[in-house]
Amino acid sequence: MSAPLWTLEDLAKAAEGEISGAASARVTGISIDSRTLEPGDAFVAIRGDRFDGHDFVEAALARDAAVCIIARHRQPDLPEDGRYLLVDDPLEALRRIGIAARARTSARIVAVTGSVGKTGTKEALRLCLERSGKTHASVASFNNHWGVPLTLARMPADTEYGVFEIGMNHAGEITPLVKMVRPHVAIITTVQAVHLEFFESVEKIARAKAEIFDGLEPDGVAILNRDNEQYDLLMFLATAAGVRNVKMFGESSAANSFVEKVTRQPGNSSVQASILGQEITYKIGAAGQHHVRNSLAVLTAVVELGADLALAGLALADMHPPKGRGEVSRLRVQSGTFSLIDESYNANPASMRAALAVLGETPVTRPGRRVAVLGDMRELGIESDDLHGGLLEPTEAAGLDAVYCVGQHMHRLWERLPGHLRGAYAESSDKLKDRLLEDVRPGDVIMIKGSLGTRMGPLVEALKKEYPPVDETEAA
Question: Which residue, 338, 279, 320, is CA-closest to 303?
């Protein structure tokens, strides 16, 4: 029988809790969602913005949770015959378990932050490091005050490489998270005008991102984007934090890791690069210059973590954009097909420009069109309208044929668009749906992007529902 993720005794010690009831001696996983809980998981009843985990303890027990970690004062409200680990605060207990998980492993750890590209870089690191050893990485975008400790708590003791994504939208949020993770390597992908609603300037955002240096292990390595406008400030902040080893990635040989040649094909790129003085040629299974740039940071981290660079280069060919972050679908329409690029997970000025560039590089079969469906970008503060209007330049540079706009702020771009590029405008995504469905043509390449709050995802799902995937149609 394989070793459990945690023994009940070790879990209780880590959580500083008291066992009540006939809890299982073996805990095979950690869950905070009773709907996806697997038998043998420990269920942590944390209280979120909308739900209180204690309301789902009975469901977790019914799904055969090994034990439920609950607030001690809530026990009288819950089933008497339950299997409990009693603590003062379940979220704080989860943090303690995460810290204990980090302390018990000898894994080499990398942490990623940045305004754009965190999740894609995290996934690329996971792919690359898996070729060299047992790798543990956060799922989805588990990068906040509960996602990071949950990911740590789920890390097996025999992990060889750990990959963590760390996010923030306020100053001071990264510091406590990175001090739990204690990475050997810290990557800042880039610093851009994101979350300006909460920051006075991009420089303040850079300072907040630089908090990742605060948890770096002694003699740890910081990996910075040499081409980012905030590079000099980040370098200064790294030095001020006592980081002695800084590596740079970028477009020119001024960086420690740089691109020598890029050849683009539909949906992927072939790259020749120098990584810390080592020459390597590799293929990336996703389109876009931002993936090329971030691959340099990934491969630099691979070397610094002591993993195999050649195997990592081969692994990047298996990199495919996840749902909402560049996933491409081919759908059937009339007597032909069209391509749908799903960028609906989130948006900010930098990621919007990157997505428009990818759309511009995507081949189109005429009379098909390159079509962008753009929703509001949130949390940009008083500069929001100007930043939306500023998308005109990358929109025109991408050689688009039509632009559809959604939201109050995106109306600024709509006003600036020349008449031949105007597809349609709507205040909300649901009001655009019928028009978008009617306008699809064979040969089109349609990219949909916007902040989560703008609800662009339902437009993606509406297109997939109306027009069946090519593979399914051919299989039938």
Answer: 279
Class of residue 5 by CB neighbours under 10 A (exposed 0-12, middle 13-18, buried 19+): buried
What pLDDT shows up at residue 472? 46
Short-list 157, 155, 154, 183, CA closest to 165? 183
Task: Find the distance separating the first CA and the last CA of the chain, reported in whole Å.
Answer: 43
Per-residue pLDDT reduced to its tens digit, 297-312: 999 999 999 999 999 9
CA pair distance 196, 205, nearest whole angstrom? 8
Distance between CA 196 and CA 169 in Å, rounded?
9
Joined together, the tokens standing for residue 296 give 């340099």
Rounded Cα distance, 443 and 362, in Å: 12
Distance of CA 391 to the CA centre of its chain: 23
Per the CB < 8 A criterion, the answer to whether 326 and 286 are in contact is yes
Q: Give me the numbers of helices (H) and strands (E) for the chain, helices first please.
A: 17, 22
Average pLDDT over the chain reads 94
Is pLDDT at 78 greater than 80 in this prediction? yes
For 148, the token pair is: 């990071």
Q: Are strands 161-165 and 135-137 parallel, antiparallel or unpaired?
A: parallel
> Of 397, 403, 398, which is closest to residue 374 (Cα–Cα)?
403
Q: In the chain, what are the domains? A: 6-87 (3.40.1390.10), 105-318 (3.40.1190.10), 327-475 (3.90.190.20)
367 cis-preceded (ω within 30 degrees of 0): yes
Determine contact, residues 21/34, Cβ cutoff 8 Å.
no
Q: Phi and psi at residue 6, in whole multiples of 5°?
A: -140, 145
- How far apart (Å, rounded) are the C-alpha atoms in residues 220 and 236? 16
Answer yes or no: are the C-beta atoms of 394 and 356 closer than 8 Å. yes
Question: Residue 415's pLDDT band (boundaries 50, 70, 90)?
Answer: very high
The CB-based long-range contact list for 170-174 (8 Å cut-off, 24+ gap) reads 170/195, 170/198, 170/208, 171/198, 171/199, 171/204, 171/207, 171/208, 171/211, 172/208, 172/211, 173/144, 173/145, 173/208, 173/211, 174/113, 174/208, 174/209, 174/211, 174/212, 174/214
The Cα 285–Cα 267 span in angstroms is: 7
DSSP E strand boundaries for 285-386: 327-333, 336-343, 370-375
Q: Distance between CA atoms of 23 and 16, rounded to whole angstroms?
A: 16
**How far are the Cα atoms of 49, 210, 352, 425, 430 from residue 458, in angstroms, in the given order?**
23, 35, 18, 16, 8
pLDDT tops 60 at residue 431: yes
Per-residue pLDDT at 476 exceeds 50 = no
pTM confidence score: 0.82
